[in-house]
Amino acid sequence: MSTRLPEPLSSAEYARRVRAELGELPAGVHEDLLEDLDEHLAEVAADDEGPLEAKLGPPIVYAHELRRAAGLPITTPRGPSAVHRLAEVGRRGARQDATKAVLAFLPELRPAWWVLRAWLAVAALAHLTGSGSRSYLLPVGRLLSIPVVAAAIVLSVRWGRAAQRRRRQRGAGTVRAGRAGRGAAAEHQDRVRRPEPTQLRLRVGRDAGPAGRDPHHQHLPVFLHGAAALRRVALRPRRPGAGQLVHHTTGRLVRRTPGPARAAAAGQRLPPAGAGRPQSAACHRHTAGARSGTVYGTGSTWRPDHVVILRRPCSDHTQPFDASRGLHTQSQPHRMNARMSVLEVHGVTKTYRRRRKPALRALDGLELLVEAGGVHGFLGPNGSGKTTTIRVLLGLVRADQGQMRLFGRRVPEELPAVIAQVGRWSRRRCSSRRSPAG
Amino acid sequence: VDTTQLLKGVLDLAVLAVLDGQDGYGYDVVRRLRAAGLAEVGDASVYGTLRRLYAGGNLNSYVVPSEEGPHRKYYGLNASGRDLLERSGKTWHGFADTMAGLLSASEAVA
Description:
- The complex is a heterodimer of chains A (about 450) and B (about 110).
- Chain A is built from 14 helices and 13 strands.
- Chain A has helices at about 10-20, 25-35, 35-45, 50-55, 60-70, 80-95, 95-105, 110-130, 140-175, 180-195, 260-265, 335-340, 385-395, 415-420; strands at about 200, 225, 230-235, 245, 255, 280, 295, 305-310, 340-355, 355-370, 375-380, 400-405, 410.
- In chain A, the strands form four sheets. Chain A has a four-stranded mixed beta sheet, with no helix packed on it. A four-stranded antiparallel beta sheet of chain A has the order 10-9-12-13. A three-stranded antiparallel beta sheet of chain A has the order 1-2-7, with no helix packed on it.
- In chain A, helix 9 (about 140-175) crosses helix 10.
- Chain B is an alpha+beta fold and about 110 residues long.
- Helices cover about 65% and strands about 15% of the residues of chain B.
- Chain B contains four helices and three strands.
- Chain B has helices spanning about 5-20, 25-35, 45-55, 80-110, and strands spanning about 25, 60-65, 70-75.
- Chain B has a three-stranded antiparallel beta sheet with strand order 1-3-2.
- Chains A and B meet through helix 3 and helix 5 of A and helix 3, strand 2 and strand 3 of B.
Protein backbone atom coordinates (compact mmCIF):
# COMPACT_ATOMS: atom_id res chain seq x y z
CA MET A 1 0.00 0.00 0.00
CA SER A 2 1.45 3.36 -0.97
CA THR A 3 0.84 6.72 0.60
CA ARG A 4 0.44 9.60 -1.83
CA LEU A 5 2.18 12.80 -0.76
CA PRO A 6 0.25 16.04 -1.25
CA GLU A 7 1.19 18.09 -4.29
CA PRO A 8 3.39 21.09 -3.52
CA LEU A 9 1.47 24.33 -3.68
CA SER A 10 1.91 26.58 -6.66
CA SER A 11 2.65 30.21 -5.90
CA ALA A 12 -0.84 31.15 -7.07
CA GLU A 13 -2.46 28.58 -4.81
CA TYR A 14 -0.24 29.62 -1.91
CA ALA A 15 -1.23 33.26 -2.46
CA ARG A 16 -4.89 32.25 -2.63
CA ARG A 17 -4.65 30.50 0.72
CA VAL A 18 -2.87 33.47 2.31
CA ARG A 19 -5.60 35.73 0.98
CA ALA A 20 -8.24 33.40 2.38
CA GLU A 21 -6.54 33.43 5.78
CA LEU A 22 -6.69 37.22 5.79
CA GLY A 23 -10.17 37.23 4.33
CA GLU A 24 -11.77 38.84 7.35
CA LEU A 25 -9.79 42.05 6.89
CA PRO A 26 -11.79 44.97 5.50
CA ALA A 27 -11.76 44.92 1.72
CA GLY A 28 -9.60 48.02 1.35
CA VAL A 29 -6.99 46.82 3.82
CA HIS A 30 -6.98 43.36 2.26
CA GLU A 31 -6.42 44.73 -1.19
CA ASP A 32 -3.77 47.20 -0.10
CA LEU A 33 -1.84 44.65 1.87
CA LEU A 34 -1.86 41.91 -0.73
CA GLU A 35 -1.75 44.01 -3.86
CA ASP A 36 1.22 42.28 -5.47
CA LEU A 37 1.41 39.15 -3.35
CA ASP A 38 1.07 36.86 -6.38
CA GLU A 39 4.01 38.47 -8.14
CA HIS A 40 6.06 38.45 -4.96
CA LEU A 41 5.44 34.77 -4.30
CA ALA A 42 6.11 33.90 -7.92
CA GLU A 43 9.47 35.60 -7.48
CA VAL A 44 10.18 33.58 -4.35
CA ALA A 45 9.11 30.36 -6.07
CA ALA A 46 11.31 31.07 -9.05
CA ASP A 47 14.36 31.74 -6.91
CA ASP A 48 15.30 28.13 -6.35
CA GLU A 49 13.88 24.66 -6.41
CA GLY A 50 11.66 23.37 -3.68
CA PRO A 51 8.09 23.83 -2.59
CA LEU A 52 7.00 27.20 -1.27
CA GLU A 53 5.81 25.68 1.97
CA ALA A 54 9.33 24.50 2.72
CA LYS A 55 10.68 28.01 2.19
CA LEU A 56 7.94 30.07 3.78
CA GLY A 57 6.05 27.70 6.04
CA PRO A 58 2.35 26.98 5.70
CA PRO A 59 0.14 29.75 4.29
CA ILE A 60 -1.59 30.23 7.63
CA VAL A 61 1.71 31.03 9.33
CA TYR A 62 2.76 33.28 6.47
CA ALA A 63 -0.53 35.16 6.77
CA HIS A 64 -0.05 35.52 10.50
CA GLU A 65 3.46 36.89 10.08
CA LEU A 66 2.33 39.21 7.32
CA ARG A 67 -0.45 40.55 9.47
CA ARG A 68 1.94 41.18 12.35
CA ALA A 69 4.54 42.88 10.17
CA ALA A 70 1.90 45.07 8.57
CA GLY A 71 0.82 46.24 12.01
CA LEU A 72 -2.67 44.77 11.79
CA PRO A 73 -4.50 43.22 14.75
CA ILE A 74 -3.17 39.76 15.47
CA THR A 75 -5.26 36.63 15.47
CA THR A 76 -3.71 33.41 16.65
CA PRO A 77 -3.27 30.94 13.85
CA ARG A 78 -5.10 27.77 14.70
CA GLY A 79 -7.09 25.00 13.20
CA PRO A 80 -10.53 25.77 11.91
CA SER A 81 -13.05 26.05 14.69
CA ALA A 82 -16.73 25.31 14.31
CA VAL A 83 -17.37 29.01 13.73
CA HIS A 84 -14.68 29.13 11.07
CA ARG A 85 -16.10 26.06 9.38
CA LEU A 86 -19.54 27.62 9.44
CA ALA A 87 -18.12 30.83 8.01
CA GLU A 88 -16.40 28.80 5.29
CA VAL A 89 -19.70 27.18 4.40
CA GLY A 90 -21.18 30.66 4.23
CA ARG A 91 -18.33 31.83 2.03
CA ARG A 92 -18.77 28.89 -0.31
CA GLY A 93 -22.44 29.70 -0.53
CA ALA A 94 -21.59 33.32 -1.18
CA ARG A 95 -19.60 32.28 -4.22
CA GLN A 96 -22.81 31.20 -5.91
CA ASP A 97 -24.30 33.99 -7.95
CA ALA A 98 -27.84 33.58 -6.64
CA THR A 99 -26.70 33.60 -3.03
CA LYS A 100 -24.54 36.61 -3.75
CA ALA A 101 -27.49 38.44 -5.23
CA VAL A 102 -29.65 37.65 -2.22
CA LEU A 103 -26.93 38.68 0.24
CA ALA A 104 -26.32 41.87 -1.67
CA PHE A 105 -30.01 42.64 -1.58
CA LEU A 106 -30.49 42.01 2.14
CA PRO A 107 -29.16 45.40 3.29
CA GLU A 108 -31.80 46.98 1.08
CA LEU A 109 -34.39 45.50 3.39
CA ARG A 110 -33.07 47.31 6.45
CA PRO A 111 -35.66 50.11 6.38
CA ALA A 112 -38.42 47.49 6.31
CA TRP A 113 -36.82 45.83 9.30
CA TRP A 114 -36.70 49.15 11.13
CA VAL A 115 -40.45 49.57 10.64
CA LEU A 116 -41.17 45.97 11.56
CA ARG A 117 -39.16 46.05 14.75
CA ALA A 118 -40.92 49.25 15.84
CA TRP A 119 -44.25 47.55 15.37
CA LEU A 120 -43.01 44.44 17.16
CA ALA A 121 -41.71 46.51 20.06
CA VAL A 122 -45.02 48.31 20.48
CA ALA A 123 -46.92 45.03 20.18
CA ALA A 124 -44.68 43.35 22.75
CA LEU A 125 -45.02 46.28 25.12
CA ALA A 126 -48.78 46.30 24.70
CA HIS A 127 -48.91 42.58 25.31
CA LEU A 128 -46.81 42.82 28.47
CA THR A 129 -48.79 45.70 29.88
CA GLY A 130 -52.06 44.04 29.01
CA SER A 131 -53.23 46.94 26.88
CA GLY A 132 -53.08 45.07 23.61
CA SER A 133 -55.93 44.99 21.18
CA ARG A 134 -57.20 42.08 19.16
CA SER A 135 -56.05 43.65 15.95
CA TYR A 136 -52.70 42.52 14.69
CA LEU A 137 -52.25 45.72 12.69
CA LEU A 138 -52.98 47.99 15.62
CA PRO A 139 -51.31 46.53 18.66
CA VAL A 140 -52.73 48.98 21.19
CA GLY A 141 -56.10 50.62 21.40
CA ARG A 142 -57.29 52.10 18.14
CA LEU A 143 -56.95 55.73 19.21
CA LEU A 144 -53.47 55.30 20.55
CA SER A 145 -52.20 52.93 17.92
CA ILE A 146 -51.39 55.27 15.09
CA PRO A 147 -49.42 57.91 17.02
CA VAL A 148 -47.67 55.32 19.19
CA VAL A 149 -46.67 53.13 16.28
CA ALA A 150 -45.69 56.16 14.22
CA ALA A 151 -43.51 57.49 17.04
CA ALA A 152 -41.93 54.09 17.50
CA ILE A 153 -41.23 53.86 13.78
CA VAL A 154 -39.65 57.30 13.72
CA LEU A 155 -37.44 56.38 16.67
CA SER A 156 -36.54 53.05 15.16
CA VAL A 157 -35.63 54.56 11.80
CA ARG A 158 -33.51 57.26 13.42
CA TRP A 159 -31.78 54.65 15.53
CA GLY A 160 -31.21 52.46 12.50
CA ARG A 161 -29.80 55.29 10.44
CA ALA A 162 -27.51 56.36 13.24
CA ALA A 163 -26.29 52.77 13.60
CA GLN A 164 -25.73 52.61 9.85
CA ARG A 165 -23.63 55.76 9.97
CA ARG A 166 -21.60 54.36 12.85
CA ARG A 167 -21.05 51.11 10.98
CA ARG A 168 -19.80 52.96 7.94
CA GLN A 169 -17.53 55.19 9.99
CA ARG A 170 -16.18 52.18 11.84
CA GLY A 171 -15.37 50.53 8.52
CA ALA A 172 -13.76 53.73 7.35
CA GLY A 173 -11.76 53.98 10.55
CA THR A 174 -10.40 50.50 10.08
CA VAL A 175 -9.23 51.24 6.60
CA ARG A 176 -7.75 54.47 7.72
CA ALA A 177 -6.18 53.10 10.87
CA GLY A 178 -3.02 54.94 11.61
CA ARG A 179 -3.86 57.80 9.35
CA ALA A 180 -5.13 60.25 11.88
CA GLY A 181 -6.17 63.73 10.95
CA ARG A 182 -9.39 65.56 10.58
CA GLY A 183 -8.92 66.12 6.90
CA ALA A 184 -8.35 62.45 6.20
CA ALA A 185 -11.36 61.45 8.27
CA ALA A 186 -13.60 63.95 6.54
CA GLU A 187 -12.24 62.81 3.22
CA HIS A 188 -13.09 59.26 4.02
CA GLN A 189 -16.56 60.18 5.14
CA ASP A 190 -17.01 61.69 1.72
CA ARG A 191 -16.03 58.37 0.24
CA VAL A 192 -18.51 56.61 2.45
CA ARG A 193 -21.35 58.91 1.54
CA ARG A 194 -20.53 58.57 -2.14
CA PRO A 195 -20.00 54.91 -2.77
CA GLU A 196 -17.65 53.54 -5.38
CA PRO A 197 -15.72 56.64 -6.28
CA THR A 198 -13.23 56.46 -9.03
CA GLN A 199 -10.05 58.06 -7.95
CA LEU A 200 -6.97 58.69 -9.91
CA ARG A 201 -4.03 60.90 -9.50
CA LEU A 202 -1.82 61.37 -12.45
CA ARG A 203 1.30 63.38 -12.15
CA VAL A 204 3.41 63.94 -15.16
CA GLY A 205 6.09 66.41 -15.87
CA ARG A 206 9.74 66.98 -15.32
CA ASP A 207 9.33 66.33 -11.65
CA ALA A 208 7.29 63.19 -12.05
CA GLY A 209 9.78 61.03 -10.23
CA PRO A 210 9.52 60.01 -6.60
CA ALA A 211 7.41 62.29 -4.46
CA GLY A 212 9.04 64.90 -2.36
CA ARG A 213 11.09 66.80 -4.88
CA ASP A 214 8.54 69.43 -5.51
CA PRO A 215 6.54 70.31 -2.43
CA HIS A 216 3.97 72.17 -4.46
CA HIS A 217 3.13 69.10 -6.47
CA GLN A 218 2.75 66.73 -3.61
CA HIS A 219 -0.61 65.27 -2.78
CA LEU A 220 -2.92 66.10 -5.58
CA PRO A 221 -6.03 64.11 -5.02
CA VAL A 222 -8.47 64.19 -7.86
CA PHE A 223 -11.80 62.83 -6.83
CA LEU A 224 -14.08 61.58 -9.51
CA HIS A 225 -17.41 60.56 -8.27
CA GLY A 226 -19.53 57.70 -9.34
CA ALA A 227 -20.49 56.58 -12.76
CA ALA A 228 -20.80 60.09 -13.95
CA ALA A 229 -17.68 61.92 -13.24
CA LEU A 230 -18.02 65.31 -14.52
CA ARG A 231 -20.61 67.91 -13.81
CA ARG A 232 -18.44 70.40 -12.12
CA VAL A 233 -14.76 70.88 -11.77
CA ALA A 234 -13.54 73.26 -9.14
CA LEU A 235 -10.41 74.66 -10.64
CA ARG A 236 -7.99 76.71 -8.68
CA PRO A 237 -5.21 77.97 -10.87
CA ARG A 238 -1.83 78.34 -9.30
CA ARG A 239 -1.07 81.20 -11.57
CA PRO A 240 -3.24 83.50 -13.61
CA GLY A 241 -4.74 81.77 -16.60
CA ALA A 242 -3.34 78.39 -15.67
CA GLY A 243 -6.60 76.61 -15.11
CA GLN A 244 -7.81 75.18 -18.35
CA LEU A 245 -10.03 72.46 -19.56
CA VAL A 246 -8.43 70.80 -22.52
CA HIS A 247 -10.39 68.55 -24.76
CA HIS A 248 -8.60 65.24 -24.91
CA THR A 249 -9.33 64.67 -28.57
CA THR A 250 -8.94 68.07 -30.10
CA GLY A 251 -6.54 69.49 -27.59
CA ARG A 252 -8.45 72.71 -27.79
CA LEU A 253 -9.06 74.80 -24.82
CA VAL A 254 -12.60 74.24 -23.73
CA ARG A 255 -12.90 77.14 -21.40
CA ARG A 256 -10.55 79.21 -19.45
CA THR A 257 -11.10 79.19 -15.76
CA PRO A 258 -13.42 82.05 -14.93
CA GLY A 259 -13.33 84.27 -11.91
CA PRO A 260 -10.34 83.14 -9.93
CA ALA A 261 -7.87 83.37 -12.80
CA ARG A 262 -8.93 86.85 -13.71
CA ALA A 263 -9.02 87.78 -10.06
CA ALA A 264 -5.50 86.49 -9.62
CA ALA A 265 -4.37 88.30 -12.74
CA ALA A 266 -5.76 91.48 -11.33
CA GLY A 267 -3.86 90.94 -8.12
CA GLN A 268 -6.97 90.21 -6.14
CA ARG A 269 -7.07 87.65 -3.40
CA LEU A 270 -8.20 84.24 -4.57
CA PRO A 271 -11.15 82.71 -2.80
CA PRO A 272 -10.32 79.77 -0.56
CA ALA A 273 -9.90 76.52 -2.43
CA GLY A 274 -13.08 74.57 -2.79
CA ALA A 275 -15.23 77.60 -2.08
CA GLY A 276 -15.31 79.20 -5.48
CA ARG A 277 -17.74 78.87 -8.28
CA PRO A 278 -17.30 75.52 -9.94
CA GLN A 279 -16.85 75.38 -13.64
CA SER A 280 -18.99 73.46 -16.01
CA ALA A 281 -17.01 70.89 -17.86
CA ALA A 282 -19.39 69.77 -20.54
CA CYS A 283 -16.90 69.61 -23.35
CA HIS A 284 -17.99 66.76 -25.51
CA ARG A 285 -21.23 65.27 -26.61
CA HIS A 286 -20.24 61.94 -25.15
CA THR A 287 -19.88 63.41 -21.71
CA ALA A 288 -23.32 64.91 -21.93
CA GLY A 289 -24.83 61.98 -20.12
CA ALA A 290 -22.29 62.19 -17.43
CA ARG A 291 -23.19 65.43 -15.82
CA SER A 292 -24.69 64.11 -12.65
CA GLY A 293 -21.41 63.37 -10.95
CA THR A 294 -19.21 65.72 -9.10
CA VAL A 295 -15.53 66.24 -9.06
CA TYR A 296 -14.63 67.89 -5.88
CA GLY A 297 -11.42 68.95 -4.30
CA THR A 298 -10.33 68.74 -0.73
CA GLY A 299 -9.02 71.94 0.66
CA SER A 300 -6.08 73.58 -0.97
CA THR A 301 -4.55 70.43 -2.36
CA TRP A 302 -6.58 70.31 -5.56
CA ARG A 303 -4.85 72.66 -7.86
CA PRO A 304 -4.47 71.24 -11.30
CA ASP A 305 -3.15 73.41 -14.06
CA HIS A 306 -4.92 71.42 -16.72
CA VAL A 307 -7.70 68.94 -16.79
CA VAL A 308 -7.79 66.34 -19.52
CA ILE A 309 -11.23 64.92 -19.98
CA LEU A 310 -11.68 61.46 -21.34
CA ARG A 311 -14.91 60.41 -22.92
CA ARG A 312 -16.35 56.94 -22.98
CA PRO A 313 -15.63 54.96 -26.12
CA CYS A 314 -18.94 54.79 -27.87
CA SER A 315 -19.99 51.85 -29.99
CA ASP A 316 -22.52 53.92 -31.90
CA HIS A 317 -20.00 56.58 -32.66
CA THR A 318 -21.10 57.51 -36.13
CA GLN A 319 -18.31 59.89 -36.93
CA PRO A 320 -14.98 58.15 -37.33
CA PHE A 321 -12.15 59.59 -35.36
CA ASP A 322 -10.40 62.27 -37.29
CA ALA A 323 -6.74 62.23 -36.45
CA SER A 324 -6.28 65.60 -38.04
CA ARG A 325 -8.37 67.01 -35.22
CA GLY A 326 -5.92 65.61 -32.72
CA LEU A 327 -3.46 67.56 -30.74
CA HIS A 328 -1.12 68.05 -33.64
CA THR A 329 -3.29 70.71 -35.11
CA GLN A 330 -2.24 74.12 -36.15
CA SER A 331 -4.48 75.61 -33.54
CA GLN A 332 -1.81 75.54 -30.88
CA PRO A 333 1.52 75.03 -32.64
CA HIS A 334 3.40 77.19 -30.18
CA ARG A 335 2.33 74.99 -27.31
CA MET A 336 3.62 71.95 -29.10
CA ASN A 337 6.98 73.38 -29.92
CA ALA A 338 7.61 75.37 -26.84
CA ARG A 339 7.53 72.55 -24.35
CA MET A 340 8.67 68.98 -24.19
CA SER A 341 5.97 66.35 -24.58
CA VAL A 342 6.05 64.02 -21.64
CA LEU A 343 3.23 61.82 -22.80
CA GLU A 344 2.18 61.14 -26.34
CA VAL A 345 -0.55 58.72 -27.22
CA HIS A 346 -1.62 58.27 -30.81
CA GLY A 347 -4.52 56.16 -31.98
CA VAL A 348 -4.32 53.71 -29.12
CA THR A 349 -7.01 51.07 -29.08
CA LYS A 350 -7.60 48.46 -26.43
CA THR A 351 -10.37 45.90 -26.37
CA TYR A 352 -10.86 43.53 -23.46
CA ARG A 353 -12.18 40.12 -24.33
CA ARG A 354 -14.55 38.89 -21.66
CA ARG A 355 -15.90 35.49 -20.87
CA ARG A 356 -19.54 35.11 -21.82
CA LYS A 357 -19.82 38.81 -22.43
CA PRO A 358 -19.30 40.93 -25.50
CA ALA A 359 -15.83 42.37 -25.89
CA LEU A 360 -15.35 45.71 -24.20
CA ARG A 361 -13.61 48.46 -26.08
CA ALA A 362 -11.87 50.46 -23.39
CA LEU A 363 -9.87 52.75 -25.64
CA ASP A 364 -10.87 53.69 -29.14
CA GLY A 365 -8.26 55.64 -31.02
CA LEU A 366 -7.14 57.65 -28.05
CA GLU A 367 -5.12 60.75 -28.81
CA LEU A 368 -3.48 62.42 -25.87
CA LEU A 369 -0.61 64.74 -25.43
CA VAL A 370 0.68 66.04 -22.15
CA GLU A 371 3.44 68.55 -22.06
CA ALA A 372 6.04 68.96 -19.39
CA GLY A 373 5.33 71.04 -16.36
CA GLY A 374 2.22 71.59 -14.40
CA VAL A 375 -0.20 69.24 -12.79
CA HIS A 376 -2.78 67.48 -14.89
CA GLY A 377 -6.01 66.04 -13.69
CA PHE A 378 -7.12 63.13 -15.81
CA LEU A 379 -10.85 62.88 -15.61
CA GLY A 380 -13.68 61.01 -17.20
CA PRO A 381 -16.80 59.02 -16.48
CA ASN A 382 -16.54 55.50 -15.18
CA GLY A 383 -15.59 53.22 -18.01
CA SER A 384 -14.02 55.96 -20.07
CA GLY A 385 -10.64 54.25 -20.02
CA LYS A 386 -8.64 56.30 -17.53
CA THR A 387 -7.15 53.32 -15.77
CA THR A 388 -6.62 51.45 -19.01
CA THR A 389 -4.72 54.42 -20.39
CA ILE A 390 -2.40 54.44 -17.42
CA ARG A 391 -1.99 50.67 -17.48
CA VAL A 392 -1.18 50.70 -21.17
CA LEU A 393 1.35 53.45 -20.63
CA LEU A 394 3.01 51.53 -17.82
CA GLY A 395 3.19 48.35 -19.83
CA LEU A 396 0.74 46.53 -17.59
CA VAL A 397 -1.68 46.02 -20.45
CA ARG A 398 -0.81 45.57 -24.10
CA ALA A 399 -2.57 47.94 -26.47
CA ASP A 400 -4.12 46.45 -29.58
CA GLN A 401 -2.79 49.21 -31.75
CA GLY A 402 -1.44 52.70 -31.58
CA GLN A 403 1.75 54.41 -30.60
CA MET A 404 2.82 55.82 -27.27
CA ARG A 405 5.79 57.74 -26.02
CA LEU A 406 6.74 58.51 -22.46
CA PHE A 407 9.43 61.15 -22.04
CA GLY A 408 10.12 60.69 -25.73
CA ARG A 409 10.71 56.95 -25.41
CA ARG A 410 8.56 54.41 -27.16
CA VAL A 411 6.25 52.46 -24.89
CA PRO A 412 6.32 49.63 -24.08
CA GLU A 413 9.56 48.88 -25.97
CA GLU A 414 11.72 51.41 -24.14
CA LEU A 415 9.71 51.52 -20.92
CA PRO A 416 12.51 50.28 -18.62
CA ALA A 417 14.53 53.37 -19.50
CA VAL A 418 11.88 55.78 -18.25
CA ILE A 419 9.73 53.84 -15.82
CA ALA A 420 11.66 55.12 -12.82
CA GLN A 421 10.64 58.66 -13.71
CA VAL A 422 6.95 57.89 -13.40
CA GLY A 423 4.95 57.67 -10.22
CA ARG A 424 1.66 55.93 -10.20
CA TRP A 425 -0.95 56.04 -7.51
CA SER A 426 -3.20 53.09 -7.20
CA ARG A 427 -6.84 53.80 -6.50
CA ARG A 428 -6.79 52.80 -2.89
CA ARG A 429 -3.66 54.62 -2.04
CA CYS A 430 -4.74 57.87 -3.49
CA SER A 431 -7.67 58.00 -1.12
CA SER A 432 -5.33 59.39 1.46
CA ARG A 433 -3.68 62.73 1.10
CA ARG A 434 -0.88 61.30 3.17
CA SER A 435 -0.34 58.49 0.79
CA PRO A 436 2.83 58.33 -1.23
CA ALA A 437 3.44 58.07 -4.88
CA GLY A 438 3.27 54.53 -6.00
CA VAL B 1 19.33 37.14 23.29
CA ASP B 2 16.56 36.13 20.93
CA THR B 3 17.65 37.71 17.67
CA THR B 4 14.21 37.13 16.20
CA GLN B 5 12.72 39.48 18.77
CA LEU B 6 15.47 42.01 18.20
CA LEU B 7 14.86 41.85 14.50
CA LYS B 8 11.18 42.58 14.94
CA GLY B 9 12.06 45.85 16.60
CA VAL B 10 14.46 47.03 13.97
CA LEU B 11 13.10 45.56 10.77
CA ASP B 12 11.64 48.89 9.66
CA LEU B 13 15.01 50.51 10.07
CA ALA B 14 16.77 47.65 8.29
CA VAL B 15 14.37 47.82 5.33
CA LEU B 16 14.69 51.58 5.09
CA ALA B 17 18.47 51.30 5.23
CA VAL B 18 18.51 48.72 2.45
CA LEU B 19 16.30 50.88 0.25
CA ASP B 20 18.29 54.02 0.94
CA GLY B 21 21.07 53.02 -1.38
CA GLN B 22 19.02 51.46 -4.12
CA ASP B 23 15.37 50.84 -4.88
CA GLY B 24 14.31 47.23 -4.70
CA TYR B 25 11.35 44.88 -5.09
CA GLY B 26 10.06 42.69 -2.28
CA TYR B 27 12.15 39.58 -2.70
CA ASP B 28 15.19 41.61 -3.65
CA VAL B 29 14.94 43.39 -0.28
CA VAL B 30 14.72 40.02 1.47
CA ARG B 31 17.83 38.79 -0.31
CA ARG B 32 19.78 41.95 0.43
CA LEU B 33 18.87 41.79 4.11
CA ARG B 34 19.96 38.16 4.27
CA ALA B 35 23.17 38.91 2.41
CA ALA B 36 23.87 41.70 4.90
CA GLY B 37 23.75 39.19 7.74
CA LEU B 38 20.10 39.11 8.80
CA ALA B 39 19.77 35.48 7.79
CA GLU B 40 16.69 34.88 9.91
CA VAL B 41 14.60 37.56 8.36
CA GLY B 42 11.27 36.18 7.16
CA ASP B 43 9.81 36.80 3.76
CA ALA B 44 6.38 37.65 5.13
CA SER B 45 7.89 40.06 7.66
CA VAL B 46 9.68 41.99 4.96
CA TYR B 47 6.72 41.97 2.60
CA GLY B 48 4.40 43.16 5.37
CA THR B 49 6.88 45.80 6.47
CA LEU B 50 7.20 47.12 2.93
CA ARG B 51 3.45 47.32 2.55
CA ARG B 52 3.10 49.08 5.91
CA LEU B 53 5.83 51.59 5.15
CA TYR B 54 4.29 52.19 1.76
CA ALA B 55 0.83 52.66 3.26
CA GLY B 56 2.37 55.01 5.81
CA GLY B 57 3.67 57.23 3.04
CA ASN B 58 7.34 56.47 3.55
CA LEU B 59 7.98 54.68 0.28
CA ASN B 60 7.40 55.27 -3.38
CA SER B 61 6.50 52.43 -5.61
CA TYR B 62 6.58 51.76 -9.32
CA VAL B 63 6.12 48.73 -11.48
CA VAL B 64 8.82 47.49 -13.79
CA PRO B 65 7.75 44.93 -16.38
CA SER B 66 9.92 41.88 -16.56
CA GLU B 67 10.28 39.68 -19.62
CA GLU B 68 11.41 36.69 -17.61
CA GLY B 69 8.76 36.63 -14.94
CA PRO B 70 6.02 38.65 -13.30
CA HIS B 71 6.09 42.41 -13.09
CA ARG B 72 8.17 43.66 -10.22
CA LYS B 73 6.97 46.32 -7.88
CA TYR B 74 9.94 48.41 -6.86
CA TYR B 75 10.01 50.41 -3.67
CA GLY B 76 12.19 53.40 -2.92
CA LEU B 77 12.48 55.99 -0.20
CA ASN B 78 10.73 59.30 -0.57
CA ALA B 79 11.41 62.39 1.52
CA SER B 80 9.29 61.09 4.37
CA GLY B 81 11.10 57.75 4.30
CA ARG B 82 14.49 59.38 4.35
CA ASP B 83 13.39 61.49 7.27
CA LEU B 84 12.14 58.40 9.09
CA LEU B 85 15.40 56.60 8.35
CA GLU B 86 17.38 59.49 9.78
CA ARG B 87 15.30 59.67 12.94
CA SER B 88 15.21 55.93 13.46
CA GLY B 89 18.95 55.73 12.82
CA LYS B 90 19.59 58.28 15.54
CA THR B 91 17.36 56.37 17.94
CA TRP B 92 19.15 53.15 17.11
CA HIS B 93 22.60 54.66 17.57
CA GLY B 94 21.57 56.14 20.90
CA PHE B 95 20.18 52.79 22.04
CA ALA B 96 23.21 50.88 20.81
CA ASP B 97 25.55 53.30 22.57
CA THR B 98 23.59 52.93 25.80
CA MET B 99 23.75 49.15 25.60
CA ALA B 100 27.43 49.23 24.77
CA GLY B 101 28.03 51.49 27.79
CA LEU B 102 26.07 49.14 30.04
CA LEU B 103 27.94 46.11 28.80
CA SER B 104 31.37 47.71 29.09
CA ALA B 105 30.56 48.80 32.67
CA SER B 106 29.43 45.28 33.47
CA GLU B 107 32.58 43.78 31.98
CA ALA B 108 34.74 46.25 33.93
CA VAL B 109 33.12 45.17 37.19
CA ALA B 110 33.64 41.52 36.32
